[in-house]
Amino acid sequence: MRKAQAKKLPLAPDPKYNDKLVTRFVNCLMWGGNKPIVLKAFYDALDKVTQTSGEDGHEVWKRALTNVTPGVEVRSRRIGGATFQIPSEVRPDRKISLSIKWLIRYSRDRNGKTIADKLAAEIIAAAKGEGGAFKKKEDTHRMAEANKAFSHFKI
Description:
The protein is mainly alpha-helical. The protein has one domain: Ribosomal protein S7/S5 (Ribosomal Protein S7), CATH 1.10.455. Helix content is 57%, strand content 10%. It has 6 helices and 2 strands; from the N terminus they run H-H-H-E-E-H-H-H. The chain has a two-stranded antiparallel sheet with strand order 1-2. The longest helix is centred in the first third of the chain and has 19 residues, at 35-53.
């Protein structure tokens, strides 16, 4: 039998926007544990988004996150010797987690000199409904739609 689920630690909101989601994003973006450097890179990225788009960078970033957030995903389930991809709804906490991870992953794959440049480019693309992270969401939804026939095998 499994032990009790670990309690979630409350996040402190970031200093500039007073937003807990920004803190969560920065924590996922961070490599090596140097938070002030990553926070500065994130703020620089939002400043570049503001300069490029002419809108508030924080709002564009929020729009990009909602555009990338998946509604359904496929999960593998083994039934009678065969493995089926079964579409299922994504939990609200996992939706945010996936969208953050995809935005960071595809921004790291982009061309650019600094992480701020790469992140700004991916945020702008995702807000428009383009880019790698948005394509990943579309592929996930397409895969779930293709495997809709197996939805009666619910996990």
